[in-house]
Amino acid sequence: MKQEKYTQYSETKAKIMSLENSISDRNCAIEKTNNQIEQYKSFVEDIKAKLAIEDQAIESPSRLRQPTLSAEQYLAHKYDAERLEAELPELNESLDYLNRSLSILQVDLSAAQRELNDIKDHLAVYLARQSIDELVAVASEPIKKLVNAIIAVERKSKGFNLGEKEAFKVATYSLICEQLLPPIFSGKNELPDLNEANQYITAIIEATE
Known about the structure:
rod-shaped, mainly alpha
């Protein structure tokens, strides 16, 4: 079961990396297509503006406003504008497809990340149990000595009712942790926060893959 989870972790992590690469590629394709669409639109607008000026010059009676393009040049510009405009629908359709496929990839990535976190939770439970077994195997007597010494120093009994017994247990557990954990965590008076704990457990899991 444990090895199966490690295998699932490796496979899911690889899947996430593949999805992230696909999303990056898709974003690049979307940006490229968007730029191409905007470029084509700009070219078409510029050509149409130029042809409009040519049309006005042809229709103007003034000799000061003469056409600057030959008939062949005019038709070539007109053809370019029509060709680029004709390509825009296909480019827009391609952009729609890229955006839809990007959304699907992002949904798949979120699902894979949730799956990885679930697998990591299962492995963290296993690591906690493994650590307890290892600690009991090598340090049960020193821990037993510590617990009894703390209770003796505090001079508090368990009490008689359930509430007193529970309060005794909670207070004793707290004292044990206060004495035991700071030396383990390099003299810190605080426990690791969630981010630190996640990084630590992830490093152990990935070193075991």
